Amino acid sequence: xxxxxxxxxxxxxxxxxxxxxxxxxxxxxxxxxxxxxxxxxxxxxxxxxxxxxxxxxxxxxxxxxxxxxxxxxxxxxxxxxxxxxxxxxxxxxxxxxxxxxxxxxxxxxxxxxxxxxxxxxxxxxxxxxxxxxxxxxxxxxxxxxxxxxxxxxxxxxxxxxxxxxxxxxxxxxxxxxxxxxxxxxxxxxxxxxxxxxxxxxxxxxxxxxxxxxxxxxxxxxxxxxxxxxxxxxxxxxxxxxxxxxxxxxxxxxxxxxxxxxxxxxxxxxxxxxxxxxxxxxxxxxxxxxxxxxxxxxxxxxxxxxxxxxxxxxxxxxxxxxxxxxxxxxxxxxxxxxxxxxxxxxxxxxxxxxxxxxxxxxxxxxxxxxxxxxxxxxxxxxxxxxxxxxxxxxxxxxxxxxxxxxxxxxxxxxxxxxxxxxxxxxxxxxxxxxxxxxxxxxxxxxxxxxxxxxxxxxxxxxxxxxxxxxxxxxxxxxxxxxxxxxxxxxxxxxxxxxxxxxxxxxxxxxxxxxxxxxxxxxxxxxxx
Length: 527
Description:
- The chain has 12 helices and 18 strands.
- By secondary structure, it is an alpha+beta fold.
- It has a domain at 143-204 and 262-526: PPM-type phosphatase domain (Phosphatase 2c, domain 1), CATH 3.60.40.
- The strands form 3 sheets. The chain has an 8-stranded antiparallel sheet.
- A hairpin with a 2-residue loop joins strand 12 (373-374) and strand 13 (377-378).
- Residues 137-512 form the PPM-type phosphatase domain.
């Protein structure tokens, strides 16, 4: 890679991939051994390319044995492609998920993962045919996928350029990689299912609306004097305090009705993401309960979750924990000639005890427990306040599976760690340049502004280079300097021991807009 620093084999990048969208059909360029040319696709996306890279610091087992080894032996290998994107059929069936747990099979039969709306979801399944698995929000005949593991981190990217959407996820595991592996093997497909359910619910709402009845058979809610149905009524409650980030439109404005419908759909997407995460959490903890007799360590295994979904010009984020999505934008000023300073805007919340708001929330949730936060950690164990898994901080019987000093003393009022995600949607504008998506290991060494500046300067000088890999290489340089080593000395320290100097780090850089960096769709193989 031009301008990059070559990492020695002992500490080589565990994951590195790139994808570049095609431009106009009449464009052409020289073939290269670095690229595998793909058929021309209809240009319909809001991103021009992305790159991902990950570097391990923790020593972990190669595969997980959870779910009788099914995830590690069958599901994850079909996802992993650490050196390139590859084409796979879209919308895989949920049959392989059905055998992971009776919890999933049961919940899919009544669709009641959202605690606030069990009656509504149950009614849907009893009275209507189930949603088709051949259609849905993430439609595509084929998709491009890439992903892999670095230490306890998992990274995934799925895109359909022809249909204008991109799904990226970073699962930052801790106390083991089983939770991150479970997410990597199941969450995307669960999200796809709930998006299909969203489409189906919307179509049923339209059918009921045409007959003048609501889903429950009652008269529809009348909004003012316009006789329009409240289209959000079929959606379950969205657990987010960030609704103001959605582009609201005045009801009195021209074409207000279609705008309200679009706004309602965005809320539905956010709700579907939350419901899918809740489903995955329920299924993982069910698995843990089934296997904790043989593997009591599973009750302490967890993961941060960061999902980024770019659909058209809407950029959705879901996060638990301290991974971040940072937008690089010029704001509302003159951004074409670069006269205004590029700004870094964090799109996600940081769920740690260091955040005053999170700290006060946790303390208020447990007013009778004076030991809620000990030594800057939840129950003295965990710095993050929201996470996937970590059942021993959520259920007493899971905590009881641990022995001795591993067990949490005085677990008075679980759960102490929340699975309620932060949700957000940002409307992409011409001012927006790129998004840096990273696990917390990246931000141990770089501020948001520093990460944005490094990526921006690299893209300007290396228009066809790999900004994610470059960012990781700069992190290694900084980590080595902080430790008083040369970069080679640091990277020759074996994984496990090297965790003393830096964490597992995963980075995805998404270049926004339609300015092409290459002239054809391609997959890039890291060398």
